[in-house]
Structure formats: C-alpha cells, structure tokens
Amino acid sequence: LTESSVQSGQLCCVPVTDWWHHLVIHCVISEREVEVFSADYEHLKIVQKSWLRFFKWCYLRLPAQAIPCSLAGVKPVEGQWSSAAALLLQELCGSDLLVGLVDESVSGILHIFLSDTAAKEDVSFHRVLSNRGHAVICKENLPSQGFRELTPLALYVQP
Asked: Contact at 8 Å (CB) between 123 and 115?
C-alpha cells in the first residue's frame, strides 16, 4: 500500500503462511507498524506496513465471514459478563468441533446455543456457564451489554 493509503478503515490483505488474510487497518502504530483487524477471525494483530497489499477489486465484494453472535438462553449473574466468564467461554471455544443452533436473530445479532460435540457427551455452553455460577438461565435472549463496544467487528462488519 502507498503511504497515503495506510489509514484506519482501509481494506487490505496480508500474507500469513500460504494464505492471504482479509484485513482492515484498525490504527497506525508507528512508521513501520499498523494494528489490523481480521473480520474473518475477529482478532487484532500488529503487522509491518510493508506486508500490506491492496485487495483485488473483485474480492472487495465478498463479505467478511464473521457473524455477530450472542449466547441464547443465558444472562450474566451481575448485569455484565465477568472476566472469569469471558475466560471460561474462551476456554470452551478451544475445541475444533463446535455446533451452534440459532434460536433467533435480533437486529443483526444471532442468538445461538453453542455446544462442544467433540467428547462422548455434548457440552452445552450455557449450562457450563450456569453451573459454574457465571450465568442465569433465562427464556428471553438479551444482547450482551455493550455488545457493539466490545469488539472492533462492529466497526467494520455490517449485520
């Protein structure tokens, strides 16, 4: 990318091993580095400016693969999800075989029941969060407090 193109919100791609990743420049860190956001994998990463490449025009029409989701049937015990609940959820998501059942879509956010099906018995995420005291089972789906503020995904992916 030319120096004038290296700015927040610019779509680009970066080679990672044998693949090119679809990224958005989140912010310029220094003369040599930028922080980029991968909408497909929903993570921020610092990369060298020299690695950045323009997207071919035909690929710009492809949507990001990430979909905004919230767990269905649970709400945090104390109004907001605790750090411990977030760490547990991250740990639960470590499996390669997760199954999501969509309960409903509200304002572009899918409310899903998420389960790990790799073991002999399925592990239901909302049950684990509830059993460990991080969540309360509920009948209505409530979007996570501050959902849009929690992730750069909200800046770059339209529901």
From this structure: yes
For position 122, which CATH number holds? 2.40.50.90
User: Does 54 lie in the same domain as 90?
Assistant: no
Instruction: Give residue-wise pLDDT tens across range 133-144.
Output: 999 998 888 765
- CA-closest candidate to residue 47, choices 72, 63, 28: 28
Q: Which residues fall within 8 angstroms of residue 128, CB to CB, at 6 or more apart?
A: 88, 92
Domain shared by 116 and 133, yes or no: yes
Contact 34, 27 (CB under 8 A): yes
pTM over 0.85: no
Whole domain around residue 57: which residue ranges? 10-65
Distance, C-alpha 120 to centroid of its chain: 28
CA distances from 4 to 11, 20, 28, 55, 75 (A): 13, 22, 12, 16, 45
Pair (25, 73) in one structural domain: no
Tens of pLDDT, residues 75-132: 999 888 888 998 898 888 876 678 999 999 887 778 899 999 888 888 999 999 999 9
85 and 143 co-located in one domain: yes
- In whole angstroms, give the CA distance from residue 132 to residue 141: 20
